[in-house]
Amino acid sequence: MSSSATVKVKLDQEVCADAEKLIGLHGIVLHESKSTFQMITKRNRLIVIAKEDAVFQFVVDGKLFTLFGNAMRQRTHLRGRKAKVPTTIPFLLN
């Protein structure tokens, strides 16, 4: 399939004392590291967002996907290789 798709990423993070400004940010993910996402916003600002205790949502073809930052806090090439230990997800989504 050779169609190009634009993926909008919305950050919806639990409210923390110093992280309130991160709630509701929209942008395109440019780079992913072990513990952060680097996103570019509509205002052409590069922001770095910690994955720890964050919930990321994005829409592709009208379907909403939710990713929990704590579950993605490892190197990208190791995610498929590590044995997954069942844990309780501490978030409740509407």
From TrEMBL:
It is found in: Nucleus. This is Ribonuclease P protein subunit p29. Component of ribonuclease P, a ribonucleoprotein complex that generates mature tRNA molecules by cleaving their 5'-ends. Component of nuclear RNase P and RNase MRP ribonucleoproteins. RNase P consists of a catalytic RNA moiety and 10 different protein chains; POP1, POP4, POP5, POP7, RPP14, RPP21, RPP25, RPP30, RPP38 and RPP40. Within the RNase P complex, POP1, POP7 and RPP25 form the 'finger' subcomplex, POP5, RPP14, RPP40 and homodimeric RPP30 form the 'palm' subcomplex, and RPP21, POP4 and RPP38 form the 'wrist' subcomplex. All subunits of the RNase P complex interact with the catalytic RNA. Several subunits of RNase P are also part of the RNase MRP complex. Pfam families: RNase_P-MRP_p29. Belongs to the eukaryotic/archaeal RNase P protein component 1 family. Its main location: nucleus. InterPro entries: RNase_P/MRP_Rpp29-subunit, RNase_P/MRP_Rpp29_sf, Rof/RNase_P-like, Rpp29/RNP1. GO terms for cellular component: nucleus; ribonuclease MRP complex; ribonuclease P complex. It comes from the Eukaryota. It comes from Globodera pallida (Potato cyst nematode worm). One of its GO terms (molecular function) is ribonuclease P RNA binding. One of its GO terms (biological process) is tRNA 5'-leader removal.
